[in-house]
UniProtKB/TrEMBL annotation:
Single GO term (MF): homoserine O-acetyltransferase activity
Active site feature: S154, D320, H353
Compartments (UniProt record): Cytoplasm
Stretches assigned to the AB hydrolase-1 domain: 48-344
Assembly information from the UniProt record: Homodimer.
Name of the protein described by the UniProt record: Homoserine O-succinyltransferase
Species, as recorded: Sulfurirhabdus autotrophica
Listed pathway(s): Amino-acid biosynthesis; L-methionine biosynthesis via de novo pathway; O-succinyl-L-homoserine from L-homoserine: step 1/1
InterPro entries: AB_hydrolase_1 (IPR000073), AB_hydrolase_fold (IPR029058), HAT_MetX-like (IPR008220)
Binding sites annotated in the UniProt record for substrate: R224, D354
């Protein structure tokens, strides 16, 4: 049974681009598709558009259901819909699957028109900057010059931040949630361990596993299990699973005994059955590469964020140790150094990095209030 407050039945759409896109790496994609969904109605002057940027394992299906009997709504259905914090009675919301993804947009599993085979390992490395550039081309195709807001959590928050740097005139507000200006060494290390699990899977075949009609599920499963541990807080894991044993006794072996083991293996298996291993490699690498200070001689984040002119809401969560609150405060301080209009909230939550996806009355009220104060149809 669907949630009565949901946007309801939605249908993905495909935007095709035949003009080559030059990527930050120097590689060129000759033509490509972006899959997207929209919710709400675009107003007459096209000033109420909101872009939702997705995190590592997300996609364009942000809200609503695909069928009446669909049990799983879009990944941010609790945030987006009629009367919700991002109110589709007021805003025209766009969710887009990033280039390199595995949910319809052109990616490693797509057929390379030059070979008639999946791109596989030949699909180029994509960056946050490349995604934002492609988002802008999608906006052009939809006739939208300026977004009332660009919103994202985690890797999506990095994209929202990049939007304000690459296209400052096209963003009125940016909501940067559970994000950081760049990854710490620890985060890069986690990503590399996850990638090594995939790269060393005997079914990976150098990224061209499609030709062998296999999937490197073992590696992808391990990568997801590792990632999932980092998305939760110790408190949540302790409260939810503790040291509970499935059978109530020690079996003195290496099969699943603790409930947390069972949970992680379930999450890993579910993910490995639906996600593409090459996409996982690309998404984690995009996380590693993003760093607005990279081309600034003194590495100053304040200097790097100088081009941004949007209004900002930056949100962090107290138990998010992967993108800790102090990383969000680095963004806030850099914006304040440039005398930008920025609001910051640190939400008390026990849910770790995943907190940005979970219903929390204070968090949702905060976003709702911020969105309600956005002036539509007026220059910022």
């Amino acid at each position: 049974m669907q949630d009565s407050s949901s946007i309801g039945i939605v249908t993905p759409q495909v935007a095709h681009f035949s003009t080559p896109l030059k990527l930050k790496s120097g590689a060129v994609i000759e033509s490509y598709d972006l899959v997207y969904e929209t919710y709400g109605t675009l107003n007459a002057d096209k000033s109420n558009a909101i872009l939702i940027c997705h995190a590592l394992s997300g996609n364009h299906h942000v809200a609503g259901y695909y069928t009446e009997h669909d049990k799983a709504p879009g990944w941010w259905d609790n945030m987006i819909g009629p009367g919700k914090p991002i109110d589709t009675d007021q805003f025209f919301v766009i969710g887009v699957n990033n280039l390199g993804g595995c949910h319809g947009s052109t990616g490693p599993a797509s057929i390379n028109p030059k070979t008639g085979k999946p791109f596989g390992a030949s699909f180029p490395v994509v960056t946050v900057e490349d995604w934002v550039n492609s988002h802008a081309l999608l906006a052009d195709q939809l006739g939208i010059f300026q977004f009332a807001a660009v919103v994202g959590g985690s890797l999506g928050g990095m994209q929202a931040l990049q939007w304000t740097l690459a296209f400052p005139d096209r963003v009125s507000n940016a909501l940067v949630i559970a994000a950081a200006p760049n990854l710490t060494a620890q985060n890069i290390a986690f990503n590399d361990v996850a990638r090594q699990a995939i790269l060393t899977d005997p079914d990976f075949h150098g990224g061209d596993f499609y030709a062998h009609d296999v999937k490197p599920k073992r590696g992808l499963r391990l990568a997801r299990m590792l990632g999932h541990i980092t998305y939760l807080s110790g408190d949540v894991m302790g409260t939810k699973f503790g040291r509970l044993l499935r059978s109530g006794i020690f079996n003195y072996g290496f099969d699943v005994e603790f409930e947390i083991e069972s949970y992680l293996r379930y999450q890993g298996d579910k993910f490995a059955g639906t996600f593409d291993a090459n996409t996982y490699l690309l998404m984690t690498k995009a996380l590693d590469y993003f760093d607005p200070t990279h081309h600034h001689q003194n590495g100053s984040l304040s200097d790097a964020l100088k081009p941004a002119t949007a209004n900002f809401l930056v949100v962090s969560f107290t138990t998010d140790w992967r993108f800790a609150p102090e990383r969000s405060r680095e963004i806030v301080q850099a914006l304040l150094d440039n005398e930008r209009n920025v609001s910051y909230a640190e939400i008390t939550s026990s849910h770790g990095h995943d907190a940005f996806l979970i219903v929390d009355p204070y968090y949702h009220d905060l976003v709702h209030a911020y969105m309600n104060n956005i002036s539509l149809g007026a220059a910022k």
